[in-house]
Amino acid sequence: MSSAFAVAHEPVAGELPVSLKANRYLDSWLGFAADGQVDVYTGKVELGQGIVTALAQIAADELQVSLAAIRMHAATTGRGPNESMTSGSLSVQHSGLALRAACAHARVLFMRAVARDCGRDPASVSLRDGRFVCAGQDRGGYGQLAGRVDLHVPVELMAPKWMSTRRDYVGSSARPMGLEQKVEGSYSYIHDMVLEGMAYGRVLRPPSPGAVLGRLDLAAWRAQPGVLAVARDGSLLGVVAEQEYIAERVLRQIAAAADWSRAPLLPPQAGLEQWLRAQPCKTVRWSRAAGSSTVVEQDSPHARALHDGPASGGPRPVRKPGATLYSGDFFKPYIKHASIGPSCAWAWTRDDGSMQVWSHTQGIHNLKADLCLALGVDAARLEVMHVPGSGCYGHNGADDAAYDAVWLSRQMPGRPVKLQWSRADELNWSPMGPPMAMRIEAEVGADARVLDWRHTVWGPGHSLRPGRADTPTLLGSWYTEQPFPARAAVNAPPASGGGADRNLVPLYDFPCSELACHRVDGLPLRASAQRALGAFGNVFAIEAMIDDIALACGRDPLQFRLDNVNDPRAAAVLSKACEMAGWHARGDAAPDTGLGLGFARYKTHGAYCAVVARVEVTHEVCVRHLYIAVDVGEVINPEGVIQQIEGGAIQATSWALFEEAHFDAYGLVDGDWETYPILRFSQVPGVSVEILPGAGHPPVGAGEPSLGPTAAAIGNALRVALGVRVRSLPLTPEAITRAIQGEADS
Q1: pLDDT of 143-196, one tens digit each?
Q2: Per CATH, which fold does 192-261+337-429 belong to?
Q3: Residue ranges of region Disordered (predicted)?
Q4: Closest by alpha carbon to 461, among 523, 369, 505, 546?
Q5: 18-180 maps to which CATH number?
Q6: 659-663: long-range pairs with CB below 8 Å, 24+
Q7: Which of 47, 135, 241, 577 is the most exposed place for a label (fewest CB within 10 A)?
Q8: Of 135 and 256, which is predicted with more confidence?
């Protein structure tokens, strides 16, 4: 591989990549082994999204070595940078850009070292196949020169002419690391770990949130053969046994004998949308003037009841003379993560009291902070190591299982304990994606121009991540004899991407007089981050209203969107998706079949994504094909981008058509696949993805941009096929029937 960069000597002033701000030292990112391997450390974790492969591609090109020379290390709190959470489609733009800067600085340091040895200017040093050349002589590779370079220095940003322009790997579809092992079935997931002397743990979950465990004599179970410990702390109870089946059997017996006191705390599910709109709330508002792209945040932090808008009996009057008011009320229910593999964790309390924890958490440092807080452990005596689980997109039960494992391991010092959740534990006790009630009002002139846009959302917060508050968010810590308070989810600040308000601000160029997010607390069901957060519901609602206005005004939905965006990258993905789907020939579609369009720019500053859905309505809604165009800026791994966009679209299809968590007055009621439906393999649509050129823009994430546009496209296609707007998710036959009946009644 030949050299493809120019060198200069001066670092440039500029803003550090996000992940470098808290991890300034070069040796927290890189190490160089004598065998020629480059050790790369990252705080981002592999969840099946391919981030480890993409980071390796970035490092290989910036260091000018082969991809095979890059040795990626799993995230651990004992070594490597603290990059907080792996979430929000931010790994490439945060960790990737930080690693690129670190590798560039490391390469320059080695070049300077070689230049000093040769008595030459650093500009005379070149790289060939990972080896430094000066004055026509091979001076060795990174591993041979490592002893001459001090890596314990703050990373400096290099001037552009120091940055590598080589793209031997970036922009190419490198095979995902671990793919062969996954195909062979030999990939080491956390569930498959085996440690010498291991024991098996199970924790009893209560029958409903806030339930209190009564008196229970545990002596007989403690005496059973193979039982190592039966521990209880308040309403938290667990079993440790020599074999997994023994732990499961004993826990079932204890569950059958347990006596719980509980109270009906939940509103009727059928009235959840109205309940959300009527509760005290904390409000954040924005406004956007005509022709202005500036969004002003107005924070109203005090709880109050909402007295305007639909909660008080209908829409507000039209404010613009001669305008027509279009309005709609939309709803997204609680959605479960429904991880195929229930959460699992390992913990090992050593004889000296120090602890090791293995978890498929999305944030090893955040989990460590909450574990230390909940268990009163000194941070220096606890290490958290990431091991891949079965995949997740959002805050599932991984952190809670880790707490359970550590709590039980303290009963068995000297032996590692494997803690496994059951299917019912995962479906009914891991945090869920929260419900959202939304109302949109648009005033439209006779020329089909939107004169004012108002969007309001009600719902719980979207983040209950560990490590971000003064009390832990770990489930088990809420049920001990002296419990920590059960916390409600919050929304991240809008500048960080928001929560329920994510993508609340439309990308279209029209004035918005009111954009409001009302955070509602008081529901005991745990809500937290789920893939795309509020963007899923908000984009579904926005794009439905855009279609309704366009069709009511006799405008083509694609052209109406193009007329209301000034961003050429937005126009490009819209046009490409429709070209892929044969949009302009859609009038030839068969009866009960429709094409629908959905679009958004994720978080209003991330990836652009447009989706056209081809939907057929039989005895159910069948999504036959999804045509997707996406712009993620610089593409690191094209096949990885396609996989992420496809995966998001398929998951969004499942959410849009089927998924809704059910509850009664006491708690969740569907703890298996028979009662909680998800998309089956036979129902997966065909998916076509086109990646548009990033036009020199920096990379952004691909994990979440397709969720909202896919749901919107399906909803809009359903409207075309049936002539009725269904505003409540999921789009089940029952929801369609209610929508038809509602239109008939009106």
Answers
A1: 999 999 999 999 999 888 888 888 999 999 988 888 888 888 888 899 999 999
A2: Aldehyde Oxidoreductase; domain 4 (3.30.365)
A3: 292-319
A4: 523
A5: 3.30.365.10
A6: 659/333, 659/335, 659/336, 659/338, 659/730, 660/333, 660/334, 660/335, 660/729, 660/730, 661/333, 661/334, 661/335, 661/336, 661/432, 661/525, 662/269, 663/266, 663/269, 663/334, 663/525
A7: 135
A8: 256
State how far the Cα of 514 lies from the Cα of 503, in Å rounded to an integer.
14
Label residue 516 by pLDDT band (50, 70, 90).
very high
Please check whether the domain covering 562-746 is classified as CATH 3.30.300.30: no
Instruction: Give dist(CA 631, CA 128) in Å, integer.
Output: 33
- Cα gap 658→623, rounded to integer Å: 12
pLDDT at residue 612 greater than cutoff 50? yes
Q: What angle do CA 496, 498, 504 make, to 5 degrees?
A: 130
Q: What are the phi and psi torsion angles at 514 (to 5°)? A: -150, 125
The answer to which of 181-190, 253-262, 615-624 has the lowest mean pLDDT is: 181-190
CA distance 369 to 401: 15
Strands 199-204 and 416-420: parallel
Angle between helix axes 707-722 and 733-745 (nearest 10 degrees) is 60
- pLDDT band for position 316 (cuts 50, 70, 90): low
* DSSP symbol at 514: E
In the chain, ranges of CATH 3.30.365.10 domains? 18-180, 192-261+337-429, 562-746
